[in-house]
Design a protein that fits this description.
The chain has three domains: 230 residues, no CATH class; 127 residues, no CATH class; 113 residues, Rossmann fold, CATH 3.40.50. The protein is of the alpha/beta class. The longest helix has 36 residues. Helix 11 packs across helix 13. The strands form three sheets. A six-stranded mixed β-sheet has the order 7-8-6-5-9-10, sandwiched between helices. It has a two-stranded antiparallel sheet with strand order 1-2. Strands 3-4 form a two-stranded parallel sheet. 55% of the residues lie in helices and 10% in strands.
Length: 505
Amino acid sequence: MSNAEPTQEENSTFTDSSSRVHNVGDAFFKRALDILASALGLLFLSPFFGIIALAIKHDSPGPVYYHGTRIGRLGKPFEILKFRTMYERPESYNGTKLTANGDKRITPIGQWLRDTKLNELPQLWNVLIGEMSLVGPRPDVEDFVAKWPEDSRQKILSVRPGMTSPASILYRDEEKQLNGANFLDDYIKDIMPDKTRLDLLYVENHGFVTDLDVIFLTLLAILPRIRKVKIKEKTIFSGPLYTFYFQHLSWFLIDFLITLISVGIAGLVWRLQEPLNIGIGPSFIMALIIAILLSVIGAFIGLQRVAWRYASLVLVMDVGLSVFLTAAILVGVNRLWLDQVIIPLNFVLNFILLTFIGMVGARYRERLVTGVANRWAFARGDKKSLGERVLVVGAGDGGELAVWLLQKSEFSSAFSILGFVDDDYRKQNVQVAGLPVLGTSKEIPILVKEQDVGLILFSISKINSSDRERILEICEKTGARVLVIPDLMEILKRPAEGPKLGVEA
């Protein structure tokens, strides 16, 4: 890659890749947050910048700021801004572009700035003018970008680089991990591929809430007492804010809306028979209380951790249990603790039934047909712990189809499916097709050894070649039999072309 402007064809490729990973709403809020946070940060931190500038000038002669060329979005180079941390000497510019533990080019105050990450604060200006974002893959020099796999480079450069990223959190002590004369080779061989993998995960899964999690964890990671604490990958990609929003708040709002509509419909039906003057205000409060009860009970019995897009219809009973318990609490409070019966029992039964139907419909939606098929498979298949233990790689449509076919076959009793592994951290600790997601591809060797897995089903159809080879290599090294089945999903997606006999030469 050169410093020349990207061609029209290259821009088209980057744009197409970007359109696949960007959500318009997330992109708008992301840029709005960038502008607001960077402007306020530059304004309120300006006195602190002055103190750092005086410390740098006092520590060693030279400029306060360092300007370095990095490769940004769409492959365009830009000048990144940092506080200077090296001596103003020729070797600082002519030496390796990567710093290692004990680098003699770094000044005393520069080492402190690097340890605390305060040397990165001037990049708020790069964020404000649109060259960078608060969160995104860290921008790299041209030499290192050229070493990325082509498909990875296209995806990573489709978004703005960031001041922080999941990779920069997990490798916040990168310099201390690099030692010896061959530290550059060690970085290119061991650290760069993993950072590239993390950047790809971010690009493919990022959103506004995820960015807030990364910012929050970055602030925690630079605190002295927390800096040495190991932060797990899944904590970053499905952090506390993401978990609260998607597993709790979003379903609370949906259930509240469903309950409010159910109360309204039940009230209209009841008024056709006899008067019922609950009122709009009390109806709103009652719907709010019911939604809170549903959320608390749902969290207690594990409904918030279910990936409903892949859920089996067997979990309808759990939804029904949460609604039944909510109704029991409501009726009990009304009859035992209140002086008079405010809500008739028949009215409660009517709107609770409507609420149950609405909750099931909202959670299953297009997955109802698949859920029925899965439930039928569970009923036909005797789910025993006997038989060869099976681990499914990929908790998407291909994995679910593989499980369904295996459980439905006449040989189902010969296998015991343990669960899935998937690199999507948002699927961790959830159930897919009634089976748990046990971990990521990195944990395959451990799971095979601990669970005595004899067969691994590789069922990922949407994956780039480098990740496919990496995961298959992990599977094959375990010693278990590996069966690759993603081609089945591709065949099903193709239009019917009629039967073909023989094999093409």
